[in-house]
Amino acid sequence: MAQGRKGRLNYRCPACFMRDLDIDMFYDKDRDEYYCLRCQFTGSEAEVLAMNEQIKKKYKVMLKRITVEDYDD
Amino acid sequence: MDKFVVNIIHRPEMVPEYAEKVTGHGKAEDIGRKALLTESLDIFRTQQRCAHENGLKTTIQMTYASLFNDEAVALAKEHHEKYGDEIALTLLGLPCKEFREKYKTKDFCIWMFSMEDKRAIVRDVFEKFRERFGFYPESTGSYYMDAELINFIKAEYPSVKCAVATCWEEGPKAYHTCNNSWYTFMDGGPWAPWIPSKVNTHAPAANEAEDSGIVAIPHLSRDLLACYDGNGSNFGTHPQNVLRGMIYDSRTWEFPYLFNLIDQYRHLAKYNNGYSYNMMFVGPGWMNKMGRWEAPYELLLKSYEEGCAYYGKLKREGVLEDMTMSEFADYYRSKKTYTEPECALWRDILYGSEKELFWYCDPYMRACVNMDQGGAIVDLRPYAAKLEWPVGIGTPHIQDASYPFLIQEKYRAGYFTHYAGEGTVRSAKISHNGEEVDLCLCRTKAHFSKDGRDRILTLDPVDIEFEDLTVKLQSVITFTEGSGEIKIERRIVEMSDPAAQVQIQEYMVGCYGTTEYAEDMSSLTLKIDGGEAPAAIPYEYKCREAASAGADSVSCTLPPIRTRVTLTARGPEKSGFVREGYAFSPMFTLGYTGTLKDKEGFVTWLRVERAD
């Protein structure tokens, strides 16, 4: 089994990101999966991207524009 | 008219942080790689272009490494001539072949070096700068600049008038985010520009005698709620930090949060006599051609271009003034008095919680009031002590530059929800017929006003429901400029039974520290002055309590941070009390109890001062 590598884009572990940890994952080309050295997460690119979308759900107003005029105090 | 000032700062960092480790993965370390140097300069050029295309001037902070690069020096001179950019000097970006060979170390954070090395490096870098440009810089900076360092620079190079001197709430949270590898511990400082004292950078100067001689600016303008709660490096006026936090639409690459953040900073003018401030300081490593984590280069570039475009748009609309750092220092000195506080009633603009925090900072304290906890004080830094806190190798604090807290709800539990113990917070409990309600559980909103030297936070009244009584209670929190005191008034606005009486307990649970972990409290002393039973309890973790009806004051003296915190009160049947902690829950408690009837009020003053 060859060593883990970083891809062109370095995905972070989505499970660790959810607990405020930025951990680069490594890619295992034999198994076509990313894996985390810090926790037990493993997943395909599609799984990583799907979990990244889950992460964003905590930002409920992430896409709402809030301007100076919205402060009414 | 309100004035919104922005500083845009770029640094030609020939070996950008992150870039060597990230782009160099799979290669042996070589910080002299030609490809790395070429790319670094290209990024600097791109950042400069983004600013200039939008009519914005910048402060070019030359790094030590860039002073050895003719092209970088020539670019700085050209942009100074053409765009009015300031040529300044940063103490970031030290790593380069020349530095490593000379100083034989991989350390790169100026505040962590020994004082002897700090002096040598500063002289080296400043003289090299003069050799290249023919003058000494007026602005400098790093992520943190300790007081001894600033004092030395100001004495040796009096032309320096402005410095990037801290990064707001970058401390244990940032350390954890990097899997306990990022040693930047600098919690507890101001979030907006200030004049540092000679003794402690984080504590603003109270007068000319304390004035370090520079105007300090924070590294980034950060989200005063999201950064306090989570990883600071995701929520600031740093477009790539916003991408780091994944705060963008993956399909459209839109990130309105960045503009919301800028706009909330604009709104802070309302609390600060018509002035507000922003800074953007993105190191070139964040615009790496290889991309950064999930974000490809194209997105990194887009975010920076659009960030600059928004500042440029605001400038064209006449609501923003771009300044260089030295211009800003002159402006700030012209409008600021030493004791004038910085205030921010900050709203959640990301999670949809509608939470509000109020931040107050002056030469005597930094305090955070949490409206989601009924106006509890959830963070308190006693600047009044002007604590001597040398930082770096050879001092007791090699890495830890944070200003110690008395209250910190994230590191030492706030309102307590766990099995046994106490959490640090300043709140009040209302009780009636054996039932008790803590105001921390009464969510509310605040309204800011200014009256002379008072900054007043008037909270919407909250309803406290007992089994047989409903009480409508209002809190008014007053910060009086230059006093070192926080006045809190609780008033019964209405009761379902106008003849009823309730008990009030005003309390502060405190400790000291800069991290999550407990410090030795053995040297602390709790004291009750006046009243029927004055008392003193030297701390021995014995869980002792004392109370005195009619007490004049209750206090705790904390020698390790040379601070005394005192509560005084005015109200019906007031009685002061103190409680000693125990090993499992070492925090102390100061407080007053009293009674309240309809329309009556109970007032307390929390005072912080230097203890010796």
Instruction: Please give the domain count of chain A.
Output: 1
CATH names the topology of the largest domain in chain B as: TIM Barrel
The quaternary organization reads as heterodimer
Give a count of the beta strands of chain B, DSSP E runs of length 2 or more. 29
Description:
In chain A, a hairpin with a 4-residue loop joins β1 (26-28) and β2 (33-35). Chain A has 73 residues and is α+β, with helices and mostly antiparallel strands. Helices cover 22% and strands 11% of the residues of chain A. Chain B has 612 residues and is of the alpha+beta class. Chain B folds into two domains: 3-347, TIM Barrel, CATH 3.20.20; 364-610, Beta-galactosidase, Chain A, domain 5 (Distorted Sandwich), CATH 2.70.98.10. In chain B, the strands form five sheets. In chain B, strands 16, 17, 18, 19, 20, 22, 23, 25, 26 and 29 form a ten-stranded antiparallel β-sheet that branches. In chain B, strands 15-14-21-28-27-24 form a six-stranded antiparallel β-sheet, with no helix packed on it. In chain B, a hairpin with a 4-residue loop joins β25 (553-558) and β26. Chain B is globular.
